[in-house]
């Protein structure tokens, strides 16, 4: 499950993207940035895949469902390319 949010700091807004493994209830990847560029969510997903692979060398993302709420950060060509390359089965948006 993916989410993107912001936090107020003394330096201004800080945008945070994170990936949670719902099964283990662990945050596997996260990124913080001063901008809302799509690299924030892309880097969080890359980190999550790397962490899972570190714990299990045989891990493959094939069949994983990437669930997220609607946001323009999740519509980038680079993110879709990564999802397709890793074999992630689903990309589902939660609309409120």
Fold and architecture overview:
The protein has 96 residues and is of the alpha+beta class. It has two helices and five strands, in the order βββαβαβ. It has helices at 39-55, 77-86, and strands spanning 2-9, 12-21, 26-33, 65-69, 90-94. The strands form two sheets. It has a three-stranded antiparallel beta sheet. A hairpin with a 4-residue loop joins strand 2 (12-21) and strand 3 (26-33). It is globular and about 45 Å long. The two termini are 16 Å apart.
What features would you highlight for this structure?
5 strands; 28% helix; 38% strand; alpha+beta; 3-stranded antiparallel beta sheet; single chain; 96 residues
Summarize the structure.
The protein is an alpha+beta fold. The protein has 2 helices and 5 strands, in the order βββαβαβ.
Number of strand elements: 5
| Content of β-strand | 35-45%
The share of residues in helices is: 25-40%
Please work out how many helical segments DSSP would assign: 2
Principal-axes shape call:
globular
Biggest sheet, spatial arrangement of strands: 1-2-3
Briefly note the structural class of the backbone: alpha+beta
Main sheet summary = 3 strands, antiparallel
Residue-averaged pLDDT? 81
């Amino acid at each position: 499950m993916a989410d993107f949010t912001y936090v107020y700091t003394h330096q201004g807004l800080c945008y945070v993207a994170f990936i949670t493994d719902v099964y283990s209830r662990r945050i596997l990847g996260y990124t913080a940035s001063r901008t809302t560029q799509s690299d924030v969510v892309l880097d969080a997903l890359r980190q999550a895949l790397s962490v899972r692979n570190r714990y299990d060398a045989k891990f493959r993302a094939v069949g994983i469902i990437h669930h997220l709420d609607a946001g323009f950060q999740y519509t980038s060509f680079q993110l879709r390319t990564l999802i397709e390359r890793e074999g992630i089965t689903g990309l589902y948006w939660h609309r409120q």
